Amino acid sequence: MPSSAADLARWRAEVQALPTWLRRSIGTASELSTVQQIIKQRQIHTICEEGRCPNRGECYSQQTASFLLMGPTCTRSCGFCQVDKGHAPMPLDPQEPQKVAEAVALLGLRYVVLTAVARDDLDDGGAGWFVATIAAIRAVKPQTQVEVLTPDFWSGQDAAAQQRSRIATVVGVQPACYNHNVETVARLQDRVRRGAKYRRSLDVLSHVKALDSSIPTKSGLMLGHGETEAEIIETLQDLRSIDCDRLTLGQYMRPSLEHLPVVKYWTPAEFDRLGEIARELGFKHVRSGPLVRSSYHAGDS
After folding, report:
1. pLDDT tens-place string over residues 176-229
2. Stretch 52-64: mean pLDDT, rounded?
C-alpha cells in the first residue's frame, strides 16, 4: 500500500493512466465469494487471489482454479510478483494436500493448476508436495485434470542434479501439463527474476520432455518490462527449440509502487500479432492478450 499522501497520489495517477483495454470487471460477487469462502475456511491459498488475477471470476465460473501450495511466502524476491516475499516461510501444513482436494471436490473443478512459491528452504524444493497434492485430488475426484506450474527447483548442493531429480519426481505422476514460465526475455532476467536464470528455466522444460515426451509443456512471458519484439520472437524460438508446446503472453501490470514500473503497455493488436507469430513457429496452443495469465483458459487445451 502507498505509505504517504504523495505515494497515494502517484499510485492513483498510475491506475488512472491504465489503457482502457486493461480495465475489466473481475466477475460477480457470488462467483468470487463462494470460492473465497471455501479457500478461507481451509486456510489454503490460490494464486488467483494472492496474485490478484483479473480473470479469477471468469475462471471460477468455468470450473477452473489455480492453487498456491506451501504457503503464501516465497523465498525469492522477483521484481514483478505480487506474492509475499521473505526468508522465513511458513512451516508446511501436513493437511494441505487433503484440504486442496476437498476444495476441488466442493467446487466441482474440472481442471486445476497447482503452483507454488519457491521453497528453496526445503530438501526437495517442494517437489514431493506437488505429488502428494495430485494424489489427494485424484483420490477424491479422479476425473479432474491437474496441471503443474512449478518453480525451477534450483537450490542446495549440486543444484543441477537436484533440479533434474525434483522435476523427475513431478513428471513421474504424469500431470496433464507441465508449466514453467521464463517470464521475460534473456536480457531482462536479472532485473525481473531475481534468483532465476533464463537458461535454467529452459532446462526445466527440456528435462520434462526428455523424461516423458508425452506430457505437454508450457511457458509464458509478461510483457512490458522493456523487451523488444525481436527479443520476444527470439525467446519464442528458444522455447520451440526445446519442444515447448503451449504459450501464454500477457501484459505486466505493476502491483504496487514497490514493484518494477511498467515500461510499455503492449496493445491488443500487438498481442494478436505476437500470437500469430507463435502459432507460425509451431506452438500448439497459444493465449496472447493483455489480460492473459499463466493459467488463463488452461483447461481448454
Report:
1. 999 999 999 999 998 898 778 999 999 999 999 999 999 999 999 999 999 999
2. 64
pLDDT in tens, 280-289: 999 999 999 9
Q: Which residue has the cell 507469430?
A: 277
Cell 528458444, located at residue? 238
Reduce the DSSP state of residue 287 to 3 states and report it. strand
In Å, how far are 70, 134, 145, 234, 237 from 116, measured between CA atoms? 6, 13, 17, 28, 27
Residue 60, pLDDT above cutoff 80: no
Cα distance from N-terminal residue to C-terminal residue, the chain? 37
Nearest in space to 167 (alpha carbons), one of 195, 197, 135, 208: 208
3-state secondary structure of 83: coil
C-alpha cell belonging to residue 96: 494441505
| Alpha-helical runs (H) found in 186-298 | 189-192, 198-211, 229-241, 268-281
- The number of beta carbons lying within 10 Å of the beta carbon of residue 204 is 25
* Distance between CA atoms of residues 100 and 66, nearest Å: 10
Kindly report whether the global pTM for this prediction surpasses the value 0.85: yes
Report strand pairing: 285-288 vs 246-251. Answer: parallel
- CA-nearest of 19, 16, 78, 23 to 54 is 23
